């Protein structure tokens, strides 16, 4: 514990417009705040648009002694933030893995198991041409999901196509148009978030395709947006608020000088609704 400091930092590097659309970040924040506030701490949130701005924020917080620890979200491959925070002497907690053997405290999410379940569901419905619309490729959990998706498709003898998106509505629509223009097109698409999946519903309608009779859609991270779509979206449902609470508990352990630990949360589970169905016969 650092005397006189009672705040935990979280920097979100994403467009501010996406924060208002996507439920994940707000649910994560709520869970972290619920945990740390019980111990008299608050969450210091900052939203930035670039890695340079994020690193500058950490330097400012360290120089001004504003935070006891920092929560790192959306770890990238060879992420420079871990070394930067270590050099500044600021403890870090990583959300989401991507593995249990990180040098800092972390909360592990088994994204590979979740990708396998999504593929298994669609293949069980008879789909042989699957596609995945990802988040940014440099994110570690994106690569974990993609590798697991491709490997599972290969193991089950089905086609698995991957197209990169950025979690935004426009990228979801563009990726869907790209996939539907292919011959043969996929009969089922898995999206890395609900915002892109909802955008795909509009694109399918524009193309004259019925969801789910002609095209099955499945979203990652269940939300009110997914539940109230037309039709409601099947989703990999994950208790993001509970994840946030676990992250907050991990932070409290770190600031109390507890040992570096890897915590594990239950993986997402499939919730089937009206956007997935047996593959079309032709």
Helices and strands in order:
Blueprint: E1 7-13, H1 16-21, H2 23-37, E2 42-48, H3 51-63, E3 69-72, H4 80-88, E4 92-95, E5 105-108, H5 111-124, E6 129-134, H6 140-156, E7 159-164, H7 169-180, E8 188-191, H8 194-206, E9 216-220, H9 224-227, E10 234-237, H10 240-255, E11 262-264, E12 269-271
Parallel strand pairs: 1-2, 1-3, 3-4, 4-5, 5-11, 6-7, 6-8, 8-9, 9-10
Antiparallel strand pairs: 10-12
Description:
It is built from ten helices and twelve strands. The protein has 282 residues and is α/β, with parallel strands linked by helices. It has helices at 16-21, 23-37, 51-63, 80-88, 111-124, 140-156, 169-180, 194-206, 224-227, 240-255, and strands spanning 7-13, 42-48, 69-72, 92-95, 105-108, 129-134, 159-164, 188-191, 216-220, 234-237, 262-264, 269-271. Strand 3 (69-72), helix 4 (80-88) and strand 4 form a beta-alpha-beta unit. The chain is elongated and about 65 Å long.
């Amino acid at each position: 514990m650092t005397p006189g400091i009672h705040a935990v930092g979280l920097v979100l590097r994403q467009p501010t417009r996406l924060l208002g659309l996507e439920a994940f970040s707000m649910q994560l924040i709520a869970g972290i705040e619920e945990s740390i506030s019980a111990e008299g701490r608050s969450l210091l949130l900052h939203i930035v648009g670039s890695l340079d701005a994020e690193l500058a924020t950490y330097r400012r917080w360290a120089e001004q002694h504003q935070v006891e620890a920092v929560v790192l979200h959306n770890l990238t491959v060879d992420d420079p933030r871990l070394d930067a925070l270590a050099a500044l002497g600021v403890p870090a907690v990583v959300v989401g893995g991507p593995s249990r053997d990180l040098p800092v405290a972390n909360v592990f999410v088994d994204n590979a198991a979740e990708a396998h379940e999504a593929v298994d569901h669609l293949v069980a419905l008879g789909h042989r041409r699957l596609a995945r619309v990802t988040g940014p490729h440099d994110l570690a959990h994106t690569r974990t999901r993609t590798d697991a998706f491709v490997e599972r498709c290969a193991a089950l003898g089905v086609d698995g196509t991957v197209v990169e998106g950025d979690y935004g509505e426009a990228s979801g629509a563009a990726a869907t148009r790209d996939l539907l223009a292919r011959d043969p097109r996929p009969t089922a698409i898995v999206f890395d978030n609900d915002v892109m999946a909802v955008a795909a519903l509009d694109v399918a309608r524009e193309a004259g395709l019925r969801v789910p009779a002609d095209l099955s859609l499945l979203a990652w991270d269940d939300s009110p947006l997914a539940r109230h779509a037309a039709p409601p979206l099947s989703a990999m449902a994950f208790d993001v608020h509970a994840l946030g609470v676990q992250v907050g508990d991990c932070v409290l352990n770190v600031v109390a000088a507890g040992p570096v630990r890897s915590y594990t949360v239950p993986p997402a589970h499939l919730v089937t609704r009206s956007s997935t169905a047996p593959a079309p016969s032709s």
